[in-house]
User: What shape does this take?
Amino acid sequence: MELETIIGLEVHAQMNTKSKMFCGCNNDAWGKEANTTVCPVCMGHPGSLPVVNKAVIEKAVRSSVALGCVVNEKSHFDRKNYFYPDLPTGYQISQYKDPLASHGSVKFSVTDPKTNLSVPGVCRIHRLHIENDAGKLMHRTGYTLCDYNRAGTPLMEIVTEPDLRSAREASAFAEELRRILINAGTSEADMYKGMMRFDASISLRPKGEEKLYPRIEIKNLNSFKALEKALLYQETMLKKLWNEGKQPTGETTVGWIDDEEKTVLLRDKESAADYRYFPEPDIPPLHISESFVAAVVSGLAKLPSEMKAGYVSLGLTEAEAEMLIDQEVLRERFDAIEKAIREPKRASSIVLTQMPGFLTSHGKTLADAPSIANMVELAKAIHSGTINVNAGKDVLEKMIVSEKSASTIIKEEGMGQVNDETTLKAFMKEAIAANPKAIASFREGKTAALGAVVGTVMKLSKGQADAAKVNELLLKELIT
Ligand SMILES: [Zn+2]
Assistant: This one.
């Protein structure tokens, strides 16, 4: 039987607001001493009341628009009640019935492993809602520690439709989603710091059927690799069951054990009734006006997919375009150089190949890259012919080592390209005298023989002669 894989994702992304969702505590808990960025509100002390952080709503609306969602004019918060030691209030403030936004879609592309070609895909977004994060538990031998610094951090939960058809598609979509949120400036989405986490649902069905079968939900996937591996693992298990005629009868929740590369049964899935959702009584419903959404839309940068199309139309490869989208340091320098010299290939060679290469070979990182102005100065010097391409590479390396500007290095090293006719002609005279055989061959019609003469000029000028101009002058001199 030919089976089709059906995958949907729930993505939690921490928002990068300065303060937490309902209180003034520092939202950046990374590296802070445990339980130091907390207050009575995020600790759920009796008598404390939550106040919605406007920046959370603004950033969530911004993300919703970037994901092509409709921002609902009315939405409200609900209490999701459950007991767990990392949840000091005993309930999470989430949006259950009326989410902030819905009906979006994300375009992504996935590389076909057989052809190596990039295939476009679309995944619809069912909803985006906002809720607060819980604290963190650290299990030790015989006891558990609680750190509530993260309690109250604003989260976006983004739920997709079951539109993804393979583990590879799921991770390609998740990577594009991450790019969109970073680009919209709403989440740092740092996977290493757990700022973006996935729950994935997977089921199979006979190809051609429309019906969905009970799914397996995989919890707590913290990297694209884990997401892809866990889905492949469950897909194999499900295929085996189906082929034995034992398709799953109920929904199951499993957890992914990264080290062992397998899943373990967590619990039977809770239903909404288990959480006893009810409208949050301490927070009034949200009304989001059209003008608020319009203001957010006007401030939104281009989508990564639009940026990518723009770079590809300049002649860059998809991989080069993705490097620019993912690394602001590279993008800023490429954009500035391209604007100044209108030579995309030269700009990408300098910014994407030479600069990272020299940084790495000198034990530096992208953070040590020469300033945008310095890089533009270098590119202009090459573009205008002040220095040739090879001298340009030397200058760039020296810029990285000495942190001096391109013009300072060119001046100090006397690297300016020689294109003054009198000087070039003096070199040419010497070169012609030194290459009688080549000149004779040239006169017999072997144009290529001139290469040796140009080579001598380059040697005499210590590589600084403008080779194209030397060629032109030589032809003029020898033919007339
Ligand atoms: Zn607080």
User: Anything to note?
Assistant: The first strand starts at residue 3 and ends at 14. The CA atoms of residues 438 and 446 lie 9 Å apart. Residues 224-243 form the longest helix (20 residues). The chain has three domains: 3-295, 302-412, 421-479.
